[in-house]
Amino acid sequence: MFDLERWDEIFETIRKNKLRTFLTGLSVASGIFILVILLGVGQGMQNGIAREFERDASNLIFVFPGVTSKEYKGLNPGRRIQLKNEDYNKILLQHADMLDKTSAVYQLPTGDMVYKKENGSYRSDGVFPAFQVLENISLTAGRFINMNDLENREKVVVIGRRIQLDLFKKEDPIGKTVKIGGVGFKVIGTFTDPGGEREESRFAIPITTAQTIYGGGNDIARMYITLKQDDNFDEAVATSQYFTGQLEQFLKNQHTIAPDDNSAIYINNTLENAKRFFMLMKMIRLFFWGVGIFTIIAGVVGVSNIMLIIVKERTREIGIRKALGAQPWSIIGMILHESIFVTAIAGFTGLILSLLLLEVFGPQVKDITEYIYNPSVNFSVAVNTVILLVIAGAVAGFFPAWRAARIKPIVALRDE
Description:
- By secondary structure, the protein is α+β, with helices and mostly antiparallel strands.
- It has two domains: 4-53 and 276-414, no CATH class; 110-214.
- It is 55% helix and 17% strand.
- The protein has 14 helices and 14 strands.
- It has helices at 4-16, 18-54, 85-94, 131-134, 147-151, 161-168, 197-200, 207-213, 233-254, 270-313, 315-323, 328-361, 379-405, 409-414, and strands spanning 60-65, 83-84, 99-107, 112-115, 118-121, 123-127, 138-142, 156-160, 177-180, 183-192, 202-206, 219-220, 222-227, 265-269.
- Strands 1, 3, 4, 5, 6, 7, 8, 9, 10, 11, 13 and 14 form a twelve-stranded mixed sheet that branches. It has a two-stranded antiparallel ribbon with strand order 2-12.
- Helix 2 (18-54) packs across helix 12.
- The longest helix has 44 residues, at 270-313.
- It is elongated and about 105 Å long.
- It starts with a helix and ends with a helix.
- The relative contact order is 0.17.
- The mean pLDDT is 81.
- Belongs to the ABC-4 integral membrane protein family.
- Pfam families: FtsX, MacB_PCD.
């Protein structure tokens, strides 16, 4: 039941103690504000990391050669390792039951492309058909390289959106002929990539064509591999770690590399990286929750202290009320109403300000850093947090209220 007199008393108390009420509310509002902002930043960091992994297949294993750093079996350090078709083919045979998608890549010696009077220099790769899935490429027109192109060493090329805009402007590139290093290639497809413009400033041709025309022989620059899916994430990580260990051992034996030489062969396992990143994110989010919750607790303690002061100041008034027949729960309700009111108003103020800040400045963060993307917070989580804060404020106000209800009228009336 709405009690107008009770609310008049609450507002009268607030008017008499404006600064104290403001500072108490500020501590509560800042607690919610800090918690929501921290949760938003944590979500933004998680979004940024997830966006990085979207650029390629989620369980991609990336292999590329380096330079030996140790003497081994009479061979001096400083040897540059060159991967071969033979390496790739043996891996396919030895681990056929584990592999899903694979592609060797040959890096063209030139990325110069010419169409009519337009020209540009771009990243260039000779690849297998699975490269499309491995690099998370989305076709916008035409098709990607297929096995027939590889077998017949067709002179066909698939270009990124940036190349299409640079060379063809508004013209449809499908079926047109471009020159790559002076050799004519037919454009069979165009694509976009979630990695953005840098990834779209490249083109792909059949690896067999690239090795034949540009003198690559049996050389390859790197390998992309994904494994068949496991039942859960932990099993997938374990399988991936086992495979990368076997792969590293095979390549070191194949190229006479010391077992403890870590600079000759590099294997980047995105699944392992994902696990490390998301474990780190979990720890960061827990830390943010901890900081926010302790800030809120500090605000709630402040509310409790203020209620104790209010009870002390109104001891004589409480004694008069009890002498006139006021029940203990009436006294408790009077104190609790003020505690809950101040906590609720401050809490929702902090919530609204923090959500507005994330809404206004969140989209602009991506222009400052690529590691935080679309910082936001689940609205229901934020509201539930404020509700818990209000409950905490009620608890904080209860103990001073209970103390007030237990004051004996004769003692209260003697209070100065």
